[in-house]
Amino acid sequence: MAPHRRTATRVKAGQVQKKNNWEASERSIFARPQDEIRLERRDPGAGYRHLFSLAQLRTFLTLLPEWDELAVGLDAIVLDDGNQGCMGWCGDGVVAVCAWERDLWWEDALPEFIEEHAPILDLLDVRAEEEDGRLVVRWTEDRARAFQLLHILTHELGHHHDRMTTRSRRQASRGEPYAEAYAIRAMEELWPAYVRAFGL
Predict the structure, then answer these.
(1) What is the mean pLDDT of residues 14-38?
(2) What is the per-residue burial (b if ≥16 Cβ within 10 Å, else e) of 44-79?
(3) pLDDT > 90: percent of the chain
(4) Does position 69 have pLDDT exceeding 50, yes or no?
(5) Of 6, 84, 96, 163, which is the most buried if we count CB atoms within 10 A?
(6) Half-sphere exposure of residue 145, counting CA atoms within 13 Å on the CB side?
(7) Nearest to 6 by CA among 98, 134, 135
(8) Angle between helical axes of 154-164 and 175-198 (0-180°, round to 10)
(9) CB 179 within 8 A of CB 123
(10) How far is Cα 31 from Cα 13, in angstroms, rounded to an integer?
């Protein structure tokens, strides 16, 4: 099993890069601004699965604080395939959550990932245990889903918000610290409403 990365966007010369070939086409979410936010579910890919549906995503979006401000300039939210090399990404007007490995457990988690994400792992009551010199994380489906919605999605929305609140609206200039702080703040505000809506 590949080691787990923190959510990441591709950045080159300070610009957030689109991850795939997003050439304009009739179906492309990057082809033109959308009249409303499009929710798209792609095939998760071999060995991966999506942990939440588009209906669950819609429910989650209704819980987000300041959604009207956050939605400015957002064209699409994508449930992307799992072969992206990251857990989520943000491009021009599009944020995505990548599919999870079919086997929920992480059998060789990175210590720095666990340390960096300790607040949300503690909140979700998810533990990393050392076994044979490796860090093993025994996710349950509901806790992995909560991690994707409460942290991965909000982190990527934080990148989008960063870009949209800069003067040019062309790049997310404040980077990872801004997105991470945004995700943690949103998680703290959302937690009671999330538990009421989704349970745990």
Answers:
(1) 47
(2) beeebebbbeeeebeebbebbeeeeebbeebbbbbb
(3) 48
(4) yes
(5) 96
(6) 18
(7) 98
(8) 130
(9) no
(10) 23
Query: d(Cα 88, Cα 79) in Å, to the nearest integer?
Result: 9
> Is the distance from CB of 155 to CB of 90 less than 8 angstroms?
no
Q: How far apart are CA 120 and CA 156, in angstroms?
A: 16
Q: What is the pLDDT of residue 39?
A: 95
The position carrying tokens 């999870």 is 100
Q: What is the pLDDT of residues 171-187, one digit of tens each?
A: 555 667 878 888 888 89
Average pLDDT over residues 112-124: 91
> Which of 176, 137, 135, 134 lies closest to 159 in space, CA to CA?
176
What is the C-alpha separation between 3 and 107, in angstroms, rounded? Answer: 8
- For the chain, the first-to-last Cα distance in angstroms comes to 26
Do residues 74 and 97 touch, judged by C-beta distance below 8 A?
A: no
Structure-block tokens of residue 167? 């003067």
Model confidence at 146, pLDDT cuts 50, 70, 90, reads very high
Which tokens go with 179? 């997105």
Beta carbons of 145 and 79 less than 8 angstroms apart: no
What are the beta bridge partners of residue 38? Answer: 76
For residue 192, give the H/E element and its range: helix 175-198
Q: Identify the top-confidence range among 66-80, 132-146, 158-172.
A: 132-146
